[in-house]
Amino acid sequence: METLIGVLPQDILLHGPTKLYVDKYHWHQPDHGIVASYTAKARDVQDHFGLFRGVDQIEAFAQATVGSCCPFLECRKHKFGPEELRNRFIPAFISVGRVLFHNYIAEGETFMSIGKIIFYKFRQMVCEGRIYKVPAALDLDSYFSEFTREQMENYDLSKDFTLVAELWDITGRAIKKEAF
C-alpha cells in the first residue's frame, strides 16, 4: 500500500460494524495527514435527538487519523498487511486534548475529518485537525484529487464546507497483544 486511498476502512480499522465511523479515505499523505468521511446513520443518532454526539465525533476523528494512519505506518514499517497487524497489536485511544464544537451533525449528513500528524514514534501517534460538514452532493474523491499538503496544513477548503469541530492532541497507540 502506498496510501490508504482505495483501502476499505474495515480492512485497516479493528472496530466492529456498528462502531466504525469511517466510510472512505479521500486524501492521504502517510507522514503528514489524511482526509476521511463518514455519513451519520440512524443507529448513530438513536436516542440522541437525531444528532451525532460530540463524543462520537471525537471517536470518528480518532479512527480517521490515529486509528488509520498509525496502523498504516506500522504495516509499512514492518512490511506486513493489516491482518498481521491485528494478530500483533491492539489499538488504544490514549487521550484527547482540547476540542471546540462549532456546529452539529444530523442523521444522513456527511462529514469529513481532516487530520494532521503531529507526532509519530514507537507505535504512538498524535494528531490534530478539524471536522467539517460536507456540502450535499459534493464528490469528495474529485474534490480532493488535486489537494496538496499545503492546503491540508492551512485547512484551505471551499467556503461551502461547514466547520463542526476543532481537535488537538488526539493520541493513540498500538499496544502489543502480549501486554494484555
Please, could you describe this protein's structure?
This protein has 180 residues and is an alpha+beta fold. It is 27% helix and 33% strand. The chain is built from 7 helices and 7 strands. Strands 1, 2, 3, 4, 5, 6 and 7 form a 7-stranded antiparallel β-sheet that branches. Helix 3 runs parallel beside helix 4. The longest helix has 13 residues, at 66-78. The protein starts with 8 loop residues before the first helix and ends with a strand.
Helical residues, percent: 25-40%
Q: What class would the helix/strand composition place it in?
A: alpha+beta
| N-end to C-end Cα span | 29 Å
Average pLDDT across residues? Answer: 94
Count of alpha/pi helices: 7
Present the secondary structure layout:
Blueprint lengths: L8 H4 L11 E6 L3 E7 L2 H4 L8 H11 L1 H13 L3 H7 E7 L3 E3 L8 E12 L2 E10 L6 H4 L5 H5 L8 E15 L4
Antiparallel strand pairs: 1-2, 2-5, 3-7, 4-7, 5-6, 6-7
Helix pairs in contact: 3-4
Could you write a compact summary of the structure shown?
The protein has helices at 9-12, 42-45, 54-64, 66-78, 82-88, 140-143, 149-153, and strands at 24-29, 33-39, 89-95, 99-101, 110-121, 124-133, 162-176. With 180 residues, the chain is α+β, with helices and mostly antiparallel strands.
